[in-house]
Amino acid sequence: MRTILVSASLSLLLALFGTPLAIKIFTRRGYGQLIREDGPAAHATKRGTPTMGGAVIVIATVVAYFAGHSATEFPISASGLLVLGLMTGLGCVGFIDDFLKIYRQTSLGLRSRAKLAGQAVIGVLFALEVLHHPNSYDLTPASASISFLRDVGPAIGVVPFAVWIVILIQAWSNAVNLTDGLDGLATGAEILVLAAYVLIANWQLRNPCAGVPVTARCYPIRDPLDLAVVAAAALGACIGFLWWNAPPARIFMGDTGSLALGGVLAGLAVCTETQLLLPILGGLFVIITLSVVIQVGSFKMTGRRVFRMAPLQHHFELLGWTESTIVIRFWLVAALFVALGLGIFYLEWIPG
């Protein structure tokens, strides 16, 4: 528990005081946000706001994770390193995308195929590695199975598992990316889901399968405490960053942050065996992603649009809602989904 508190506190401070430094550096170098011409008119005022702020979140998370372990002498785990590696790798893909946008002075960075290929390579490496590194109880960071509250059914095999994990990682990194369209929206929603994973991993820590009867309720998770440390470090970094990213934002996370934060959610879901619970915990991300799928599908099939603009948050902007109103109400929706997901997770422990 001390490691969780130290890592979360340090990452919060690093992001809180490091983000203004990043704002100065990025502003001086002209790393400003480019705005789509077909977007809401109110977004024109955001042109030039520093972007790539997600680099602060990633750096603060990684530094705080290692510093927390060093300060408390708690051993570093394979699960924690793999989730951090996934987060950092996807952050690098996002950084390249952001840098190309700035360099070319266009709202288009990496081509979609190149971005998906980068996510796929990192996803395959992650999928293969989580099936190795057993501990003294022969538990690996994950098993080759699909999971809900724990693994569901038998193992599906290494290759299908790798494909499934790549799909999961691409889906969640792009879902957070689509949500990152208004000041503070994605950051606030991410904070809520990360807080849920701190609680989930702690509950799994207190109910391990080692040394209990086979019929008992338990969780065969390799490193639940260290997964809680990762979630807490990312949580603290997001809170510190949100101070500067809240409306009106002084800096944007860019694809650097959104891909990394989507990756850390996917990694935590895989290693805590809650892959299919994550769509409930992150229901807001799912709704916003579905709005894009529905919009594109409807336009291709019928030539008509369901929403005034997708993703969904921009639809409400064009209906006349203020940005702050949308952000706060969407945060409330995100909180309700997190409460629902935690309720489902805990439901099996209620007597009767």
Please compute the radius of gyration using only Cα atoms: 20 Å
SSE order: HHHHEEHHHHHHHH
Overall pLDDT metric? 92
The low-confidence runs, each spanning 5 or more residues with pLDDT under 50, are none
Helicity level: 55-70%
> How many E-type strands?
2
Helix count from the secondary structure assignment: 12
In terms of DSSP E residues, the strand content is: under 5%
Structural class call reads mainly alpha
What is the first-to-last residue Cα distance? Answer: 31 Å
Q: Strand order within the widest sheet?
A: 1-2
Principal-axes geometry comes out as globular
Number of domains: 1
Largest beta sheet, briefly?
Answer: 2 strands, antiparallel
Account of the 3D structure:
The protein has a two-stranded antiparallel ribbon. The longest helix has 28 residues, at 2-29. 66% of the residues lie in helices and 1% in strands. Helix 2 crosses helix 7 (224-245), helix 2 packs across helix 8 (254-271) and helix 6 (185-206) packs parallel to helix 8 (254-271). A hairpin with a 3-residue loop joins strand 1 and strand 2. The chain has one domain (2-279). By secondary structure, the protein is mainly α.
